[in-house]
Each structure stands twice: as structure tokens, then as C-alpha cells.
Design goal:
By secondary structure, the protein is of the alpha/beta class. 50% of the residues lie in helices and 14% in strands. It has a seven-stranded parallel beta sheet, with helices on both faces. Strands 15-20-19-16-18-17 form a six-stranded parallel beta sheet, sandwiched between helices. A three-stranded antiparallel beta sheet has the order 12-6-21. The structure holds adenosine-5'-diphosphate (ADP) and magnesium ion.
Length: 765
């Protein structure tokens, strides 16, 4: 912490604060905070704001006042002509923070807005023009995607170029949820040739032994007997290039038939398949299964479809974050993710010390023989605290676990509140009270994050009682994927120097522990007989800690590998989105009709006017790029499902995947002029220009896709999108020796093989 500059800022705040240097602007904010909100910013908050302004990731504990720190950084950027997005953890916090801080912005003469899910689209364009915008990464990302399917530059709301982003609770978005794609789907007319229904009928003879389901990737594969059967029924070499689409359809039909369950995964309503959102458990109209799966489920129910949702665009949160040239963030748990922030996003982490020393006692992990024993320990800890009128916050792993704990408590006559991140505003009010004497609050990882828990309740009435009882007790119920999430939960207690305590529970049959095969790792230390109470074998506990580290995925190679699958799509998306935007805003004119169908073009220009035709041509291509992109997304979905096949053939799947994507993209792009000509022919059948209808989706929907294949979801991918060249960035990630080796191999082979996937799946037109 640079005390000198902080002192300077404070002394400047006595004066007029007129300049736009960082000291002057911060001094102005300091003064404005005192004047409007009556709070005197702490040195730690100024230090955090300085780090944010430098584009850093700031670690600042829960309750230390990050909301205000962000305002300083935002005002400084705004004073220097930048536009700032402050991306909060949820809609509730976006609104809360904007309303809370608005008096300071007003005083500083900085315009501020807020965009949340309920903000009408008509108002968004103006809101995004404000100097500082509070929103969520999800909402901003959806607006970015929605612009991709508009046909009029005037309908686009999201800024052309992004500038500076401050991510609040940054690790949750930039790491934990980084890989979750935001999706936009649209209802598009489709012609149902009945082929898929035929395939569905033909696989009726496939039994259990003919296919296998891979839980991890969520894919269905043919076994040897299944492949034989398919070849017999369809009379072809099932793994040959020309059978690629057929193979994808067969496995989709098998998955629709054997894996997906009506009323659990989807419902059939009004002749359409409607997905059930696994997160909320509610029907999610407009959400579609990717690729061939949607039509396969329709075939299963004999539905004849004329219009159906198709995925039109998607972007993973981490890639959305990277659209901002300057990034910064703040969270209570940045330190342990320091390496990831640097490697993935290219930003450094700065740790701001807490203003007061932390008085929370964190107990080490307690391991139990099984979930039953563990539950007993948790319940008795809650009961004990409740009897002593001490508040308890239970961080459970899932909604089911929360509800089951609540039931156990009910049987004991202990009252509790359960939070599932379903209604953030309501739950914020509940969690704000979690520090009240005797409160028992059960929450998932996500629920109530960003909300202040004050000891003794919001009005602090019982502060002394609660402090004497030991402050807030946090119980983490099972092993989490990273120690950061555990830390985040522990950090709910001991805010601003409060007393507090946290305990962390695990059982030998916890999913995380079984998945990582503790039995094998621990060898003779693994207990064979049930014991009551916590296990104490030190060697066993060390192995459990090791599992935590393994699961934190410090495996560099794994992440590099994952990036190799997703970067190519990013590159293609960037090009496609950029091209489309420039067509609509008039900065680029399509000339395919002029060049590739000169005769027809002249006719059309004569009939409808040259200027009108040019405008229409741009729109037609823009709409065609949407079709093109739908096909691309379908194609890459089924490519990924087939990745394992290349491993059988001893190839490098990532490399093959990239080659296939690139080939597909290029060949599909090559087909655009021809497809444009078809549109022009259709146009010429019209008497008047208004009679020509561009194919656009009748409705669009946005949602988060929680169920991407495991191979793409496990870990965020690495930096590289920042550097100029995609190829370079991939190369730079490989170890030097590996690169040489690889390039020798692949250069030699590449020309001849054209990508295994290319051969395997062919190219979809
Ligand atoms: P964080 O986001 O770091 O968890 P918040 O921004 O929600 O913390 O602030 C936590 C609490 O601290 C709020 O109740 C806020 O009003 C209070 N607070 C923040 N800054 C100050 C300050 N400088 N002086 C007094 N109280 C403050
Ligand atoms: Mg906060």
C-alpha cells in the first residue's frame, strides 16, 4: 500500500479537486463519499481503487468495502474519457450498488446506469452510453449475442467497442463460471424431410450392448456390436467420411431414446419439445438440445416440426470477459487463483490487507467415515450453536443437500432458512439477517454472495450477545473443487475484525473423494472399518489435501489442451460477428451479387434501385451469416462428440479438431456467394422489394448452457486470445521442445491427411 499517494489524495480532498489526474479524481471521490454518503473512505479502499485503475485483480476480504473502491476507479476512468462496465455477481447487486453509489457519481458529474434482466431492450442502448454501467456479465453477454441476430444497426444496443471492465466477485465469474456458455437460440423454419424419423425407427433393434454412454462427456458411442449393426442396417462403412452425418444422427437418436427422459430432461407441450432447466427445474421455452439431438427427441415422440429453435450464437463467459481491452476485478479470494488470473487473463493480483486483523478461527478439514457420520457431526454442530443462540451459516453443496439438512433440523425442532440462489433479492434480505442471534441459514455456494452479514443483525441490536457466543459459525459441508470456494465460504464469518469460526467437513464417500480415488492414494491408511467421529490418521488426511490440489487442476497441460479446442471457435466467432456488424452499420458493403451474379444484379438494380439493392444485399448476407453460424455451431458440436475416435486412431485430437473446424469454416465461407445468388434469384421473383422476406428467427431466447461436454467445461482455458495471432498463442503455450517436435510431425503429415475429422465427418453443407 502506497501511503504517500493516499495521504496526498486525502490532503487534496480538502481543496477544489478539479483536475483529471488520478490523485485529483480520487480526492474528488473521497470528498463526494463523505459529503453524499457520510462515509470516510478507508486507506485500504483507496489502495484497492489504485490497483483496479492499473487493471489488477484485487483481493479484498468480504465486508471491507469493495463497492466503494470500484467507484473511485470508475470515476477516474470516466474522467479520462473511458467507459466502464462494473460487472456484479447478480442483478440484485447491480441495482443495489448502482443505487447506493449514485450520489457519488452525481456529485462527480459522471453518468451512471444499470442494466439487468428486466431492463426493457428499448432502453438499453441509451443506458450503455452512460459513462459507468452496472450490470452482470450474463446480461451484457446476452446483449452482445442479441445484437448478432438483429437485422438493423438501429436495433443493436451493445457498444461497438468495449473499454474497461471491473468484475466484482471476480473469481466466481472469471474462474468458476468461466466456461459456461451464454447461448442465444432462435425459432427458425425448418423443413422436415422425415429422414431422422426413419433413422429413429431403424435403430429399434439396438439393444443395451450396442451403445455406451459416457457420463463425463454426456455422449453416446456405438460399441463394436453397435457399429456392426449400424453397418448392416444402413449398408455402409459407418466410420467412413460420407457416413459422418449418419453416425452423428444415429448416436443422437440413441441418446434421445435411452438417455434423455421425458418429464425429467424435457417435456412435450403443444407438439414441441421443451427442455427442463436442470438448475431451476422449470420448463425453459426456447432452450434447445444442441446439434442433431433436438430433432432426434422430436423423432422419438413422432413430432412433425416446421419451426424449431436452433442455437444461433454462444460465447463462454471467459471469452466475453476478454472482449474488454482492459480488465480488473475484486474478490475476497484472489490470492489462491493468482496464477490463473495471470495466465488466463493476463492480469496481476494485488492483496489488500484487511483493515483490522482477522479474528476468525478456521479449523482444518474434518474427515468422516461416511456421509452418515458426517451428517451427524454437522447436525450436532448446528444444534449446539442454535441452543447457544449463536448464528450458523451452512455452506452446502447442492439444493438437495440444503433441503435434506433442513429436514434433519426440522425433526430436531431447529428453525432454519434455506437459500438456493433462486430469488436473489429475497435471499439477500435473508442472508443480511444471517448474523442475528440464533439464526440458522443454509445456503449453496452461490446464494447470497456479495451481501454483508452483520453480527447481531442488520441493526446490530444483539451484537454483544452474538460476539460473546463466538460470532458467526460457518460450516462447509463437503469437499469443494477448489480451496478457494471453501475460503470464500469461510470468509462469510469474521468480517471487519469480528470474531467468528469455520469448520470444513468431508466424508470418504463424498463424490470428490471417490472420484479422485482416495482408496488407492491412501493405500493402507484407508480405513476398512467404520469408526465414529472424525478420522485422525495424519497420512490419510494428507492424501485428502492432495486430492484438493489435484482437483484444483493445477495440471497445466490439461488447461492448455482445453484451450486448443475452444480458441478456434473464438477466432471464427470474432471474424463472423465483426463482419456482420460492419455490414449492418454500413462500414462494409457486400459485393457478391455484383461479382458473382452480375447479370441478375443489374436486373435487380434496374427494377428496385441500386442503393436499395445494396442495402438489401448487406442485410441478406447478414442473415445468411446467421444461418452459416448455426451450421458451424452444429458441426463443431458433433465434431467434439467424436473426438475420442481420433484417439483410437492414435491421432492428436486437438490438432485434428482445429484442422476440421478451419476446413469447415473455410468451405462454408466459400459457399456463401452461391447461396447469395440463390437469394437474389428469389428476390427477382418478387414484384416489389417489400415482398421479399429475409429469413429471420421469429423469436429468440437466451440462456446459460450448464451442460456442455465435460471435456470443455472442467477448467478455464489459458491466455492467448490477447495476442495478435491465434497460431502464435497456441504455440506459445506449448513447451519449446514440444513445439518443434509437433510442428515437424504435423507439417509433414498435414497436407496428406487434411485432418482426420475432415475425413471422418466430411463437410456439412
Ligand atoms: P464487500 O463488497 O467488500 O464485501 P461492501 O462494499 O458490501 O463490502 O461493504 C461492506 C459494508 O461496509 C457496508 O455495510 C458498507 O456500508 C460498509 N463500508 C464500506 N466502506 C466504508 C467506510 N469507508 N466506512 C464505513 N463503512 C464502510
Ligand atoms: Mg461486494
Amino acid at each position: 500500500m502506497d501511503k504517500k499517494i493516499i495521504e496526498k489524495i486525502k490532503s487534496l480532498s480538502e481543496g477544489a479537486c478539479e483536475g483529471d489526474s488520478i490523485e485529483e479524481v480520487f480526492a474528488g471521490c473521497f470528498k463526494a463519499a463523505k459529503k453524499t454518503l457520510g462515509i470516510m473512505p478507508f486507506d485500504e479502499q483507496i489502495a484497492a481503487a489504485l490497483a483496479l485503475s492499473e487493471g489488477k485483480m484485487v483481493q479484498m476480504q468480504t465486508g471491507e468495502g469493495k463497492t466503494l473502491a470500484a467507484v473511485f476507479a470508475a470515476c477516474y476512468a470516466a474522467a479520462n474519457g473511458h467507459s466502464v462496465h462494473i460487472l456484479t455477481f447478480n442483478d440484485y447487486l447491480a441495482e443495489r450498488d448502482k443505487n447506493w453509489m449514485k450520489p457519488i457519481y452525481d456529485e462527480m458529474g459522471v453518468s451512471v446506469g444499470c442494466v439487468v434482466e428486466s431492463t426493457p431492450r428499448a432502453e438499453r442502448r441509451e443506458l450503455y452510453k452512460k459513462q459507468v454501467v452496472y450490470t452482470t456479465a450474463k446480461e451484457a453477454g446476452f446483449d452482445y449475442l442479441r445484437d448478432f441476430v438483429t437485422l438493423d444497426a438501429d436495433d443493436a444496443v451493445f457498444p461497438d467497442t468495449l473499454d474497461f471492465a471491473i468484475f466484482d466477485e471476480a473469481d466466481s465469474i472469471l474462474i468458476d463460471e468461466a466456461r459456461i456458455p451464454l447461448v442465444i437460440a432462435g425459432d427458425i423454419e425448418v423443413s422436415d424431410s422425415g429422414e431422422l424419423r426413419e433413422i429413429y425407427a431403424k435403430i429399434s433393434g439396438f439393444g443395451e450392448e450396442d451403445s455406451a454412454f459416457d457420463e463425463d462427456s454426456g455422449n453416446v458411442y456405438l460399441t463394436d456390436s453397435g457399429a456392426d449393426k449400424a453397418e448392416e442396417i444402413f449398408g455402409c462403412d459407418i466410420y467412413a467420411e460420407e457416413s459422418a452425418e449418419l453416425l452423428a444422427r444415429i448416436t443422437a437418436c440413441l441418446k434421445a431414446r435411452d438417455i434423455l427422459k421425458e418429464n425429467k430432461d424435457y417435456i412435450v407441450k403443444d407438439g414441441a419439445v421443451v427442455l427442463i432447466d436442470e438448475f431451476t427445474g422449470r420448463a425453459a421455452p426456447g432452450r434447445v438440445f444442441p446439434g442433431e439431438l433436438q430433432p432426434a427427441v422430436e423423432a422419438k415422440h413422432g413430432l412433425k416440426i416446421t419451426s424449431r429453435g436452433r442455437i444461433m450464437g454462444s460465447i463462454a463467459l471467459q471469452y466475453f470477459a476478454r472482449l474488454y481491452p482492459k480488465l480488473s476485478g475484486m474478490t475476497g479470494t484472489a490470492e489462491s487463483a493468482r496464477e490463473e488470473f495471470e495466465k488466463i487473463y493476463g492480469i496481476l493480483t494485488e492483496v489488500i490487507p484487511t483493515r483490522l486483523p482477522c479474528a476468525r478461527e478456521d479449523h482444518p478439514l474434518e474427515l468422516y467415515f461416511d456421509k452418515g457420520e458426517k451428517r451427524r457431526a454437522i447436525i450436532s454442530a448446528i444444534k449446539e450453536a442454535a441452543d447457544a443462540k449463536r448464528p450458523v451459516l451452512v455452506g452446502s453443496e447442492s439444493i438437495e443437500e440444503s433441503e435434506s439438512i433442513a429436514e434433519d433440523l426440522k425433526a430436531l425442532g431447529v428453525k432454519c432458512e434455506v437459500l438456493n440462489a433462486k430469488n436473489n433479492a429475497l435471499e439477500a434480505a435473508i442472508i443480511a439477517k444471517a448474523g442475528e442471534s440464533g439464526a440458522v441459514t443454509i445456503s449453496t455456494n452461490m446464494a447470497g454472495r456479495g451481501v454483508d452479514i452483520k453480527l447481531g443483525g442488520e441493526d446490530r441490536a444483539d451484537r454483544d450477545i452474538v460476539t460473546n457466543a463466538g460470532g458467526l459459525l460457518v460450516l462447509v459441508t463437503s469437499m469443494r473443487e477448489s480451496s478457494r470456494i471453501v475460503q470464500q465460504l469461510r470468509g462469510r464469518a469474521g468480517r471487519q475484525g469480528d470474531v467468528g469460526e469455520s469448520r470444513y467437513f468431508a466424508a470418504l464417500d463424498d463424490e470428490m473423494i471417490e472420484k479422485n480415488d482416495l482408496k488407492n492414494l491412501a493405500g493402507k491408511h484407508y480405513p476398512t472399518e467404520k469408526t465414529e467421529g472424525a478420522l485422525s490418521d495424519k497420512a490419510l488426511l494428507r492424501e485428502v489435501e492432495r486430492i484438493q490440489r489435484i482437483s484444483e487442476g493445477d495440471s497445466f497441460d490439461e488447461r492448455v489442451n482445453l484451450m486448443k479446442y475452444t480458441l478456434i471457435g473464438e477466432k471464427h466467432r470474432e471474424v463472423t460477428f465483426g463482419k456482420r456488424r460492419s455490414l449492418l452499420d454500413g462500414s462494409y458493403n457486400c459485393e457478391m451479387w455484383q461479382k458473382d451474379a452480375a447479370g441478375l444484379y443489374e436486373k435487380a438494380a434496374e427494377r428496385f434501385g441500386e442503393k436499395e439493392i445494396q442495402q438489401l444485399e448487406n442485410k441478406v448476407l447478414a442473415a445468411l451469416l446467421n444461418e452459416f453460424w448455426c451450421d458451424y455451431l452444429d458441426y463443431t458440436t458433433y465434431l467434439r462428440e467424436g473426438i475420442h475416435l481420433t484417439q483410437i486412431a492414435g491421432r492428436n485430437p486437438a490438432e485434428e479438431y482445429n484442422i476440421a473446424c478451419e476446413e469447415y469454416y473455410n468451405s462454408a465461407a466459400d459457399s456463401l456467394p452461391e447461396r447469395m445468388t440463390e437469394k437474389l434469384e428469389k428476390l427477382l421473383t418478387c414484384e416489389r422489394l417489400e415482398d421479399y422476406k429475409i429469413d429471420v428467427p421469429t423469436r429468440t431466447y437466451t440462456y446459460l448452457l450448464n451442460d456442455v461436454g465435460e471435456e470443455l467445461k472442467a477448467k478455464p482455458v489459458l491466455v492467448g486470445v490477447f495476442s495478435d495471432s491465434y497460431e502464435e498463442s497456441v504455440k506459445s503455450l506449448e513447451s519449446p521442445e514440444k513445439t518443434e517436435e509437433n510442428s515437424e510431425n504435423s507439417d509433414g503429415e498435414r497436407t496428406e491427411k487434411h485432418g482426420f475429422f475432415g475425413k471422418l465427418f466430411g463437410r456439412k453443407k
